[in-house]
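User: What would this chain look like folded?
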Amino acid sequence: MNSVFLPNANSIHFNFKYHAIHPLSPALSPKPLPGRSHRYPRLRCCVEIDMVKNGQGIYAPKNDKVVVLWDLDNKPPRGPPFDAAASLRTLAARFGDVVDFSAYANRHAFVHLPQWVLTQRRERRSLDILERKGLATPSEPYTCGVCGRRCKTHLDLKKHFRQLHQRERQKKLNRLRSLKGKKRHRFKERFLRGNHKYDEAARSLAVPKVGYGLAAELRRAGVFVKTVQDKPQAADWALKRQMVHSMSRGIDWLFLVSDDSDFSEMLRRAREADLGTVVVGDWDRALGRHADLWVPWSGVENGRWIWCPRERRKEEWKMMMMMMMGCF
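Assistant: Here's the prediction, encoded as structure tokens.
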């Protein structure tokens, strides 16, 4: 059955059905391939192509919808959060259009300082002391990213940024609080929004009072960050509710960044609902056994990922991982 909706329809549906006639069977209905239906539930004996009209007025195949859910309590980034989120989005975009990218955690995940942040700050502090004593000299002077002023030491640059640019920024924020309506909107558009130079300099010079800016960096990468209550399993329950909501929206792929085995039942329900599932974690444990694909978290953070199908034996993908990591 082929159906075409013209001329004002936004989508065209083509259903091509290919029936294989088996000589030993009197029935003309196609016989499913052995071992395929339970392994890949999204594969069928018919091809269904949804054609959608794009912005250029050309009908093109409709892309799959992808939802990414990130359990920050169980799988926090072990490096710069923006780079990890950008790499994860790039991986998910290979499967279709990313319609939702959410991360859930309680407040402790945003207050906690990981070891790599402490080491980085300790090294920066030691280098600042050496530069102030004259024992270390930078090869090039430090340049302010906002006004272009050059400073001899990193401490001089921080002092310049704090006394000049941060003070001006605070004056503008105080002025914004006193305005209302259209005046507030115009003032914000003119003086505060789109100031990329200040934002870039503040990320490297202004140290957050609490945490290390995890939520801000994830939001900059386009991630919706949700802070849950400080209760046991609060993030897990929020993720499960979001998974149920995503499955009701008619998505095609579900990405789950976690190693928590409590999501095994939800993954089984997603596979029964004809959804493709991808688990991003450190080990192919309970979640990896119930997903279509498993991707190592370390490879995603570094931008070098390989995925392993659920049917592949553990010895095979371990050998493949060793070979791939050796190549790099």
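The radius of gyration is 26 Å. If you want, I can go into more detail on any region.
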